[in-house]
Amino acid sequence: MKKLFTTLFAVLGFFTLAHAQQSKGVELGIGIGYNGASVSNDNNHSTKSKSGFNAAISVDNYFSDRWSLKAKAIYDQKGWAEGYLGEAKGIDFSLNYLTVPVMANWHFGKTRNWYLNFGPYVGFLLSADASQFNGSLKQFFNSADGGLAYGIGVKLPVADKTKFFIEFDGQNGVTDLFAEGASPYAIRSVRGAFNIGFNF
Predict the structure, then answer these.
(1) Which DSSP string do the residues of 31-97 spell out, in sequence order?
(2) Which end of the chain is flanked by fewer CB atoms within 10 Å, N or C?
(3) Could you tell me which residue ranges the Outer membrane protein beta-barrel domain spans (predicted)?
């Protein structure tokens, strides 16, 4: 876990340095959330949702009072429930990722306290396992996942330069989760989350 958070801070530290000269202000954030994750295939069949959590740190680089570029580093619990598309009943699959979205962030409302964001993400597989199976299943999955990230939220001032946020964010994968030859199916991740946290 220590190694994970070291990686998170390194990623966001690099992002901050790369954009510092162009920024009109930088806002940092920390948050946690509840995940609902599933997978779907090319025929739009989907699995049951699996519950999990996420923990994130973020950097939001402002270019005006309406637009910023936001990056996150997220410990993301994904996967799916009840096997795959009705098979292997009662087995839940757990896929844990380090997810890094980079999104355009639009701020709106009278005080610009609402925000809507969208952009690409890449996820790096940390572990893969399943209930009723012993050992790692990581070799059956691709090491990275990519897709579209999006979200909407509101920030509420609680102190000078500190805001409490509530948000929904989603991810829709566009790459196959299975490693080549691991399955005849091509599956893509779908994840929604309700998050809370602080910006400062």
Answers:
(1) EEEEEEEEEEETT--B-B-EEEEEEEEEEEEESSSSEEEEEEEEEEEEEEBSTTTT-STT--EEEEE
(2) N
(3) 20-178
Domains of the chain with CATH codes: 2-199 (2.40.160.20)
pTM of the model: 0.85
Q: Which residues pair with 9 in a beta bridge?
A: none
Q: How many whole angstroms separate alpha carbon 22 and alpha carbon 14?
A: 14
